[in-house]
Amino acid sequence: MITSPHNPRIKLIRSLAGRAKDRREAGLFLAEGARLLEDALETGWEISFALFSSEASARGLKVAERLRAAGVDVEEATPEALKSASETENSQGILAALRLYSLPLPPNPTLILIPDQVRDPGNLGALLRTAAAVGADAVIIPPETTDPYAPKVLRAGMGAHFHIPLASLGWEEIRAHLAGKTTFLADAGGTVSFWDADFRSPCALIVGSEAAGASQNARALAQVTVNIPMPGKIESLNAGVAGAARLRGQRTRFD
Asked: pTM of the prediction?
């Protein structure tokens, strides 16, 4: 049993909860809680090791047994040691280090999401969750967008990472992937109403951050700028909500 907050695995978990650079160097990311680990198990994601404590819920303890049965290295830690590694304020009692990789991009995607300069982890996670829910084919992460494998993004994504391809690419690579597709930019000053835009052919949707909007690189790729009409007195929507509305509408119209 792990009892010390200075245990190598506890220290590794803390580093995975921190900087993207540490995650890349380790080739691992942190997933915490029974729900995320159930999704990882069900999709066959590679799990390096898992830690749990006696304070885990009945669901969490069951997941620990499932992980063991699947051949994962599972180790118990004291509640105090695990809390010292947990990224959440109230530890869920079970967490794991998962291999850092992504599902491959499909050869002929019909709907791609590009969250540009979205730095709020909750907004990015919500966008990933919506993209997976509506059946988008891929999410491309451009420079200046927060790391999609940060713990808060994982929690907000609610398992989306295990179901949709994610690719971190530079703008020239993104341009190549968008060849032959209509590229829409969600923008409050868009020239076309979202409800009037034609989403029936293969396309990509760029969603900029609420604070800074889309980058110049993103605007250079956009062929159509679309807005969400808001007759009420609210000035704007956050990136997660605006992106969700547009993604759902695009997939509905494409289908």
From this structure: 0.85
In tens, the pLDDT along 24-76 reads: 999 999 999 999 999 999 999 999 999 999 999 999 999 999 999 999 999 99
DSSP letter assigned to residue 209? B
96 to 2, 17, 24, 31, 66: CA distances (angstroms): 14, 11, 16, 5, 13
Single-letter amino acid code for the residue at 147: D
Give the model's pLDDT for residue 122: 93
Element (H, E) at 106: none
Instruction: Enumerate the β-bridge partners of residue 226.
Output: 186, 192
Q: Is 255 exposed, middle or buried (0-12, 13-18, 19+ CB in 10 A)?
A: exposed
Amino acid at 212: A
Is the pLDDT score of 9 beyond 70?
A: yes
| Residue position matching structure tokens 């907004």 | 123
Cβ atoms of 112 and 177 closer than 8 Å:
yes
Task: Say if CB 246 and CB 205 are below 8 A apart.
Answer: yes
Query: Which has the closest alpha carbon to 206: 174, 160, 254?
Result: 174
What is the C-alpha separation between 160 and 27, in angstroms, rounded? 19
